Amino acid sequence: MTAPTKPNPSSPSADALHGPVIDWFEENARDLPWRRAAAGPWGVMVSEFMLQQTPVSRVLPVYEQWLARWPRPADLAKESPGEAVRAWGRLGYPRRALRLHGAAVAIAERHGGDVPTEHAQLLALPGIGEYTAAAVASFAYGQRHAVLDTNVRRVFARAVTGVQYPPNATTAAERKLARALLPEDEHTASRWAAASMELGALICTAKNESCVRCPIAAQCAWRLAGKPEHEGPPRRGQTYAGTDRQVRGRLLAVLRDAVGPVPQAALDRVWNEPVQRARALDGLVADGLVEPLPGRLYRLPLS
DNA sequence: AATGCGTGGTT
DNA sequence: TAACCAAGCAT
Question: Start and end of every HhH-GPD domain (predicted)?
Fold first, then answer.
């Protein structure tokens, strides 16, 4: 059985992919605010945090609000973490807001207020992992990095490896392939990173892929193989109704919409099962998303 | 390495 | 309509 990340014998060469994909990108790239020069490294970094597991359409309005309110890392660093959580609104995964605030504080303290340029420095910031460090270094600073997000992984799985979907978790073989496909020239590499991601986002989508508009359809290993169905373990479903996540979301929504501290009685109304409710609230406090005050009061964290 | 972590649109 | 999906990270 062939490893799912091993290129097919008939897989296209790197050189055969770069030109068509980058040319397609020049013509079809979306005009997103974080792609404009005015966004700067901070705009790129904010957008990357917001886009972790969240669609572009929902990020756009919140991104504009954040950049208008906190145009530099030091501006956000001066705020309380709770204000960041409040301004995060309903983007989801609010720990990202906390981490972005923490990253802004670290940038103000350690990097003179400028988003660091080095991959290792970026990786050391809270909320920044392998993908985001590479994305900021590549998109904001034009550096040569393999930017391996879910879109790129899917494009490589199909075009090169010949399977419908990449593995559940990113494998060493995928990283190796991404590095092998990276153009040598720095500027070309950064264009390739953005272009291959955009191809996955717009054309080579998880469902209803649009091969007729794909610039590399003629070379795509998966299409040439007759687009075989995904085999292997199904991707882990994400149930939500009835989970602690749902309870946490409801609790935090009350605190976001409140001006001052909220009595526990008000929080109790969002979920009728007391054990799960208490567990969810404790979890929010443990995560630093909620601050308990004397007298059974709660608020978003002031520090 | 498997799991937990929000939310809303689409099929 | 329940399931799936959306530029991951931390533990």
Answer: 50-202
